[in-house]
Fold this protein.
Amino acid sequence: MPKDTGIGASSKRREDIRFLTGKGLYTDDLALHAQAHAVMVRSNVAHGKIVSIDTAATEAMPGVLAVFTGEDFVAVGGNPAGWLIKSRDGTPMREPKRPVLAHGKVRHVGDAYAAVVAETYQQARDAAQQLADDTVIEELPAVVDMKAAVANADNRVHDEIPDNVCFDWGWIEDNRAAVDAAMKAAPHVVTLELTNNRLVPNAMEPRASIGEYNTGTGDYKLTTTSQNPHLTRLLVAAFVMGIPENKLTVVAPDVGGGFGSKIYHYGEEALVLAAAKKLGRPVRWTAERTESFLSDAHGRDHVTKIELGCTKDGEILAIRTETHANVGAYLSNFSTATPTFLHGTLMSGPYKVPHVYVNVKAVFTNTAPVDAYRGAGRPEATYSLERVIDMMCRELNLDPFEVRRKNLLTPDQFPYQSPVGLMYDTGNYQATLDKACDLGDVAGFEARRAESAKKGKLRGMGLSTWIEACGIAPSHLVGILGSRVGLYDAATVRVNATGNISVMVGAHSHGQGHETVFPQIVADKLGIPESSVEIVHGDTSKIPFGMGSYGSRSLAVCGSAMDRAMDKIIAKGKKIAAHMLEAAEGDITFADGKFSVAGTDKAKTFGEIAFSAYVPHNYPLETLEPGLEETAFYDPANFTYPAGAYICEVEVDPDTGKVDICSFTAADDFGNVMNPMIVEGQVHGGVGQGIGQALLENTSYDETGQLLTGSFMDYAMPRADDVPFYTVDHSCSTPCTHNPLGVKGCGEAGAIGSPPAVVNAVIDALHRGGITHVKHIDMPVSPGRVWQAING
Amino acid sequence: MHNFEFVKPSTIADAVKAMAQDGAQALSGGQTLLPTMKQRLAQPETLVSLTGIPEMQGVCMGEGGLHVGAATLHVTVAQDAKALYPALSTLAGGIGDPAVRNRGTIGGSLANNDPAACYPAAVLASGATVVTNKRKIAADDYFQGMFTTALDDGEIITSVIFPVPQKAAYVKFNQPASRFALTAVFVAKHAGGVRVAVTGASNDGVFRWTEAETALSADFSPSAISGLTVDPTGMIADLHGTAAYRANLVKVLTGRAVAAAH
């Protein structure tokens, strides 16, 4: 019987009432008295020397209040990378300064080199056009292709970096020789070169920021589209602007999707604050869709050669990869962690592989910065691994299901120390694979294939067994790995005098449903109705601290902090109850919302205890403070390791190359599930994005660095009829062993596990249809590419 | 978007007068023009809306076939031509999405003549007549290459007259992002022979595949074209498909359109 409240109930998303009725309040919805409008002036060349910017005519235009150029920000700091990566030779990564506005050179199409602030948006827009006309930029040859960038020492994105390489990382470098030897000794070696296509995040709400400055107090306020307001405060205050943290409030109100792109601090946020201070007026900026395409941090963009050494019967012996990872023109905040510690550490997947070595060269190019995007490094690892395993099966004529069963870790092998540095705590990968086979009716595939053949369609089935490391992240571990921040989270549980509860959480909800799920957990633990709990998030002046939402961490890390804070509430409640009930504290038990004296019928309700804490007429004031509010910071002991098995069935039209997804089955292990409906929705969204990457989404720059797919006319987002009705299961649960809720995280899973299942299915369809010369097709597996591969 | 004047005449005569002003630009559904203006790539001084003119609205049978007013919405054609010219109705019902179909008009589509638009294929394959405020233009004379038509400056399409074929079908293969035609084929079997019009494929815009027309006029079956090849020279090559791919689609979709024609 499904529960109707508390943990495990599919409570309906309370935030949807405002989202679906147009009552959400997004940054651009705010209208402030005396506000001025900023428009960024962006480069239309990929690489160029800024020769001159003549601001005179622009400044004289109607309504223009201020013009900013890179010159205005030379004295302030740069936007830093959050992780310091060291190259194989021990040298630190090259870390060029990322300025608020480009100075000296522009480095990608869309790179902002100036900004205009005016009374109205139209005036600012007109003035920005004038300023662009009055700017002389001497175009330089663009660095676009990564391998060419590394090979050509003369053409530099950053003049001080001769080969455009940020770092050349080996993981684990000490194991390299042993991996090489194992590969050499392997009876069979499979080699695959593939591209993990660059993606534009395309959140529904474009980025927007409003800066305010109080000339009376010297306080700044930034309202912005952020997944991560505290980190933005830290970066703006301590690194970029030099403002004391306690003089800056960052508010992220309703945010319409992020998928990673809104984790980071962007220059526009510093610009509106600087402009607000200069003018003493609020200054706002909202990206146009074209600006989003050009200047949001993109995702993926790896070019990888993966080799797999195995026995003739498919036992994996060694894996070795060489990856070029595009970081774009500047280092975005997580850009150095994504291709390294979120990618290399997953390269043994859910398999027992003795020898693994990963090499990643991060390369600067004259393209938009690339950073974490839903899955962040883990989709790239999973795709490489699951594709090469599929290729192994084809080369050796082995069954892909059996090969995976042979290599998957078994439940008795946990905890498992992987050869790439992670300690998997728990899992049951056979169970999810069995479940997927069952739900996906693998046994009935042949009959379905025959039906498709009658219609002239080639049917194929693709499998992916995946794992990720999320619940980001244990600070002690990420510190060793180069992180410059801790990755704990925090929550304050405030029990109000009347017994209802406000919970201030560091995790930011921008579609995830925290406002529904977190109260379920509180209600369950404190024995009160869900409706008595409200979640407060996204405002640094209201919440204790937080490291935001990304890396499938909100529940595993912030939810755990909330759980710890509730433990403190219950502990204090017991003290109050002991006093009120004239019993020893050790005899007080708490269950179902009541503090009771064990073995008696003497009890006080949660509400009575709360009331007593705020109206302490009968209260142990000599030993206990009044009030009932507790804060906890939680730093996870380990990553969490969700895993699953995905099966995709496709039909390929051999005449047109069109791929239709017939079915998609996802059997996942997310540990304990708090709200099954929301988990299912997360999987739907993630798989949808994975299908988008696999079949549709293509970010293409031409050789001059112009973005060819700069609008929805050419950049194909998945639509409802591009995706099937999903079969989703999360019943094969092995609870996380090290956080109090036993949760693993589900936000990124679908985007991680699905792309290889889709591509494997397409290759399978072609092979079953007799088109055996096609070994691989790079994503997106578009009709044109499939047809070309068939007829190539 | 830059500022502009806006007029909405209620007669063709007034519209013609308004269009004679310097800097005037006709606005029908605005599905191409308005995004272009928002991007500041077009700066007309005056927009002359053509959607308030009753005589440019509606679908009915008349002399020469099916008359469609130039300012008729795609959604209206999809509904009202269903029984009268099913293939045209299908085409109209497959343009863009509901928002586009409830703003976009046939006249706007034809005046713009996007090389990947749907309507030009129907007009050319049907052997339709484009009626303007000044004259009647045969489909074969109307389309003059990508974004180019026989229209003079200020000339307004008022209606289109479609001879209704014995059998017809439109088969469209979507460009995955825009869902314009990556390539689409309209096949129409008339008493006097078959016409095959292709959109989305050629650098010259919509065109007739005459070899297929000859073969299908002799034998209206998919197998009639199996021996033909399509020359990829002059076909569009872009991110979504090579010239050879589009040439392949022309043949594949023609066969499917013949099979689907009714």
User: Anything to note?
Assistant: Residues 302-473+638-791 of chain A form a domain with the Aldehyde Oxidoreductase; domain 4 fold (CATH 3.30.365.10). The longest strand of chain A covers residues 316-328. The CA atoms of residues 314 and 403 of chain A lie 6 Å apart.
